[in-house]
Every structure is written in C-alpha cells, then in structure tokens.
Amino acid sequence: MKGGKSKAESKKADGRLAVKKQTKKEKQAAKDPNKPKRPPSAFFVFMEDFRKQYKEKHPNTKSVAVIGKAGGDKWKSMDGDEKAPFVEMAAQRKEEYERKMEAYNKKLAGGGDDDSDKSKSEINDEDDEDGSGDDEEEDD
Length: 140
Fold this sequence. Notes:
Layout: H1 7-17, H2 24-27, H3 42-57, H4 64-77, H5 80-110, H6 120-139
Helix pairs in contact: 3-4, 3-5
C-alpha cells in the first residue's frame, strides 16, 4: 500500500460521519385523523357520476385506467354549460370544507376537549363525592 487508506478503514470513517437518513414517513408530520378531507375539484365530482354511468354501460370493464381515460376525454369535450353543475357542486363542497376547517382550527387552538361543559375542578369535585372521601375517614 502506498499510503492510501484501505477499503475497511474508509468504510469505518464514512460510517462515523454518516448522518442517519430519515424515511419519507419520518419526514412527514403525523396526520390527524380528525382533520377534514380536502374537497374534490369539479372534475372529480364529474368522475363520481361518470364512473357509475360507465360501469352500467360497460359492466365487463375492470380497468381503472380505461375508465379514467374515457372520463378525461369526455370532460375535455364538454363545454362550460355542461360543466356548470359539477363546478357548482364542487364550490358547495369547498364551502362546507372551509366551515369544517374553521371549526377544526378553532378546536386545535382551544387546546382540547370541548365536549364537556364542566371545568376540570367540577369534574374532580364529583370524583371526590363518589367515594374517595370515605377512605379519608377510615384512616383517622
């Protein structure tokens, strides 16, 4: 060897300097299951209806790609008047989503359970009345 590092030595050095790589799941923040789902666009509202119609006309077609391709072609060929009902339904769903998100964000900002009208001290007082006070008398 002419003064160079052996392969084993270079691997050890690299191993010490290497930073642990995060997986995609670790990089992404944990998703809240209570968070409202985003509303579908007008095209996806159209596709909900189109899939049903397409499956009635073509019951043997199982391919999602074929149905999606046919739906996309149909959507492109439609004019603004034909798309209007789907755009309107998408706008309604978006308004509903925004209301739900507002409520969701308020709940997060509030910091917890808004299910109970009683304060924590009132709940603790009830627990004391239920039977924990009896233990104190026996200790005397």
